[in-house]
Amino acid sequence: MITAIVLIQADNGRIPETAQAVADTEGVAEVYSCAGDVDLIALVRVRDHEQVAEVVTGRIDKVAGVQRTVTHIAFKSYSSADVEAGFSIGE
């Protein structure tokens, strides 16, 4: 499974509608509205890289209100349990 993090700049007056439309897009697992340099962050989870391109350029980029996207591909997932296990000395 491939996870892509998509940073989205959206029209200011349409952020809630844009976020919901992106969330309803096939291949999108979650969408977060946020403060900072971007308006929305979408997590895309698909089986292969071709599907990442299809979801981002074929679907998300076409959602009304989306101005610009930047996509990052995740290599590995870490959780607090993973980090703690890495420092465990066999207790």
Automatic annotation (TrEMBL):
Pfam families: AsnC_trans_reg. Gene3D superfamilies: 3.30.70.920. Residues 6-76 form the Transcription regulator AsnC/Lrp ligand binding domain. One of its GO terms (biological process) is response to amino acid. This is Lrp/AsnC family transcriptional regulator. One of its GO terms (molecular function) is sequence-specific DNA binding. SUPFAM superfamilies: Dimeric alpha+beta barrel (SSF54909). GO terms for cellular component: cytosol. The lineage of its organism: Bacteria, Bacillati, Actinomycetota, Actinomycetes, Mycobacteriales.
